[in-house]
């Protein structure tokens, strides 16, 4: 609902969005499992994952991007500002990946997604207050629903949980 007025919907876009959700969900669960299997922290997992991702992207890049043709990465002049922007973007991407792995490793993929929705709401609210972007009533309603869900989830996660009784506890008479 938040982005309803910002984009236009079509069938192919919906298919890509659904595939993106599916791939992202599987990826987040795999990150959690791999981090647990390797007993790795977020930096170690990033060092494990980044080279493989780079090689895979380099293999796919020529088929998806016009690398050397008009509009391609290597078609124009590589100015100092373009190189600086590319390096800055790369550094930001590394920091984001570290944050993703840290959140998923210390919490869960669900908490990471809740955090993502919270961040999206803050982006919409920030755009309204800082840049005076117009906001529709549907967006206000969606933000309120989303933030309510974030607060309920946070409350449930922080609420003291009753101790888990195991089969051994029952057998021992605890």
Automatic annotation (TrEMBL):
Q: Name one Pfam family in it.
A: TPT
Residue span(s) of domain Sugar phosphate transporter: 3-153
Ordered alphabetically, the record's keywords are: Membrane, Transmembrane, Transmembrane helix
TM spans (from-to): 12-31, 43-63, 83-104, 111-131, 137-155
Domain of life of the organism in this record?
Answer: Eukaryota
GO CC entries: membrane
Question: Localized where?
Answer: Membrane
Its membrane topology is listed as: Multi-pass membrane protein
Q: Which PANTHER family match?
A: SOLUTE CARRIER FAMILY 35
Q: What is this protein called?
A: Sugar phosphate transporter domain-containing protein
